[in-house]
Amino acid sequence: MEKTENWQTLYQEMARIIGAAATEELFKHFTGSQLYFPTRLLDPKKEAEMIWQERQHGVPVDVLAQSHGYSARHIRRLLKEVESEKNDDQH
Question: What percent of the chain has pLDDT over 90?
Answer without folding.
Answer: 89
